Amino acid sequence: MDPNKLNLNNLEQQQSTLEIQTKEFDYSKRAQWLRAAVLGANDGLVSTASLMMGVGAVKQDIKAMILTGFAGLVAGACSMAIGEFVSVYSQLDIEMAQIKREKLQRSNNMEGGVVQGQESKDKEKLPNPLQAAAASALAFSLGAMVPLLAASFIREYKVRLAVVVASVTLALAVFGWLGAVLGKASPIKSAARVLVGGWLAMAITFGLTKLIGASGL
């Protein structure tokens, strides 16, 4: 067999393998972002609903519940965004330092043009702190909107609480299922864990706030 054809076939196979690996990496990266978004939305849902249930334990006024939920949404979204920005920026600093070390090492073995081309490819893969912060804040806000919208138009106190719990239960089941699909885990077990966790958070907040309110503190 012609050695040139053999080398050409090997090169094509290597390129094909590289394309497959790149696609798998891109899918994995997207899945991680989606899973982080689902977890952020779940956090916004549970924390905001728990705050609203806590206030609802001592105040039947719809205005107080809505204002509390809105304050929780804004505070939580800002906290998530700042925390994600700081975390990703720290990761960015570490990876930039690694790129500089690798650039220095490659410069001893390669020509300058090759080094610059490799460096530009490395920088394209770096995380974006602003993008991560915006995605985190948006995901939290979307989750927090569920109990807020559920309670906004219901004046009857007991019905309002029941609707909030029902809407949060449905959203928790959906988020648990999505998280399981993205993480390649069991949807039933994942949804059950998320549901139980959300119910516990709301029940504990409601119960403790009711207890403190009844004691007159």
UniProtKB/TrEMBL annotation:
<dbReference type="GO" id="GO:0005384">
    <property type="term" value="F:manganese ion transmembrane transporter activity"/>
</dbReference>
<keyword id="KW-0406">Ion transport</keyword>
<dbReference type="GO" id="GO:0140315">
    <property type="term" value="F:iron ion sequestering activity"/>
</dbReference>
<comment type="function">
    <text>Vacuolar Fe(2+) uptake transporter.</text>
</comment>
<keyword id="KW-0472">Membrane</keyword>
<keyword id="KW-0408">Iron</keyword>
<keyword id="KW-1133">Transmembrane helix</keyword>
<dbReference type="InterPro" id="IPR008217">
    <property type="entry name" value="Ccc1_fam"/>
</dbReference>
<feature type="transmembrane region" description="Helical">
    <location>
        <begin position="64"/>
        <end position="82"/>
    </location>
</feature>
<feature type="transmembrane region" description="Helical">
    <location>
        <begin position="132"/>
        <end position="154"/>
    </location>
</feature>
<protein>
    <recommendedName>
        <fullName>Vacuolar iron transporter</fullName>
    </recommendedName>
</protein>
<feature type="transmembrane region" description="Helical">
    <location>
        <begin position="194"/>
        <end position="213"/>
    </location>
</feature>
<feature type="transmembrane region" description="Helical">
    <location>
        <begin position="161"/>
        <end position="182"/>
    </location>
</feature>
<keyword id="KW-0813">Transport</keyword>
<keyword id="KW-0926">Vacuole</keyword>
<dbReference type="GO" id="GO:0005381">
    <property type="term" value="F:iron ion transmembrane transporter activity"/>
</dbReference>
<keyword id="KW-0812">Transmembrane</keyword>
<dbReference type="GO" id="GO:0005774">
    <property type="term" value="C:vacuolar membrane"/>
</dbReference>
<keyword id="KW-0410">Iron transport</keyword>
<comment type="similarity">
    <text>Belongs to the CCC1 family.</text>
</comment>
<dbReference type="Pfam" id="PF01988">
    <property type="entry name" value="VIT1"/>
</dbReference>
<dbReference type="GO" id="GO:0030026">
    <property type="term" value="P:intracellular manganese ion homeostasis"/>
</dbReference>
